[in-house]
Amino acid sequence: MIYFNNVTKKYKDETLSLDSVTLTVAPGEFISVVGHSGAGKTTLTKLILAEESPSDGTVFFESTNIHKLSSRELTKFRRRIGIVFQDFRLLSNKNAYENIAFAMEAIGATDEEIATDVPHVLDLVDLGHRINHFPHQLSGGEKQRLAIARAIITQPELIIADEPTGNLDPLNANEVVEILKKINKLGTTVILTTHNRNVVDSIGGRVITLEKGRLIRDDKDGKYMI
Amino acid sequence: MFRTDTKRVIRSGYRNFMRSGFTSLASVLIMTITLVVITGLLYVQTTLQVALNNIKDQVDVTIYFTPKTPESDIKNVETGLNKLPEVASIVYISQDEALAKFKERHEKDYLTIQALDELDENPLGASLNVKARDPSQYETISKYFEQDTLQAKQALTVIDKIDYHQNKIVIDRLTSIINGAKRLGFALSLVLIAISIMITFNTIRLIIYMSREEITVMKLVGAGNKYIRGPFIVSGMLVGIFSSIITILLYWPVSWWLGSQMTEFLGVNLFKYYTSNFFQLFFIMLASGVIIGGISSIFAIRRYLNK
Hints:
The complex is a heterodimer.
Chain A (H helix, E strand, L loop, with lengths): L1 E9 L5 E10 L4 E5 L6 H8 L7 E6 L2 E2 L5 H8 L2 E5 L10 H11 L4 H14 L15 H13 L5 E5 L7 H16 L3 E6 L2 H7 L2 E6 L2 E6 L7
Parallel strand pairs in A: 3-8, 3-9, 6-7, 7-8
Antiparallel strand pairs in A: 1-2, 1-4, 4-5, 9-10
Chain B lengths: L1 H18 L1 H38 L2 E5 L5 H12 L4 E7 L1 H11 L4 H9 L8 E6 L5 H6 L6 H9 E4 L1 H47 L1 H10 L3 H37 L1 H4 L3 H7 L1 H28 L2
Antiparallel strand pairs in B: 1-3, 1-4, 2-3
Helix pairs in contact in B: 1-10, 2-8, 2-10, 2-13, 3-7, 8-13, 10-12, 10-13
């Protein structure tokens, strides 16, 4: 599904963020990307989203080179991916309902679809009672669950979760991981970056370890080992 | 599809505007200042225009003829002057009219009236009162008689005096002051308008700058550029709409005061100007506000969309 072909990313200030990484992600996988801060985890996700372009090498999503897409094609491409961030990145001016409705409006859903799907997905992440609350009125765990609801509402083929548990206490972190596992079981590919040992161990799937931009370990049934 | 999108964009822009509370209020106030300046300059221009017209009206050239000049000679001069493109109008004042006017002016001055009555004949000559289209053209008109034409020479034999020469300095000075005020007013307007538009633009830019993170998120969620930009433009236009309403309301008491207290001084009743041009003024404010707000938003958001 995703192919990193010898990808190197150097930022303007000459920091080497990714160093010749080659990687394949198959559909339906749940991949944990681990590593210290600055190991290149976030850069990896940014390259998949075409937020950054590689300095060298290519990134393919199925058969398209995503860094060759036009702005319009890129918008369409991004609709196939759901994203969850460490800092939630919800739209602060919109309430829970509108945050999710926005993602649906963006892909051109009808008002009827929005009216039925949004309450449903909010119930799914256990936020049915928070439907009219604004992000600043929600707790960290609730914000992250809302962000996940936004990511899955468009039924993407891939979910990228960049340190989704980084700002959460263990209990909330666990809840978030459980939701992601459930989504994965329903057939969505999940790429999760983290430096939290408990999270990785509780997922127990494929683990990719990055260190100083290099891919140093790729275990089929991995554990957190740094 | 287009209708749904438009509806969503407008709704979203309206909500953003309303929910941003204090930020929206701040930009509305800044925009109001811009519109107050623009409208104020309209008022100044109107007052200046009226004042200029009044002054222009008061400037004229009077050609006095020696008494007993036959009316046909005077008519000859009048038709000659009428051929000049610079001449706006000519009023003929006959000897009898001149006498009547003189008596009227000196109604209470018995001595003069008595002296005048002692005379057997009317000592006052007829005159032609000439108005030019523009104050700068009086010189051309008076030079008409200095030309080396038969008509001019003939005219000079019956002309007692032309009082343009007496007024020349005053007229010249007025002409240059009028022109200077016009030019200065125009330049000042442009500068003030430019400054206030820049301030408004900057305010809107700051507001959009605060939303740059959200713009990135919207893009990542898969929203198209048009769909992201729309609500910001709507918000910008709403700023314009609200500011124009505030401005037109602000100008009501101001115009009323100017109308009741300053009409004599300014030579124009600005409250009358306000009421008779209400919709025109409001439309100018609304259009300026909506255009400045909308275009500022388009320019401000461009750099975040192109990333």
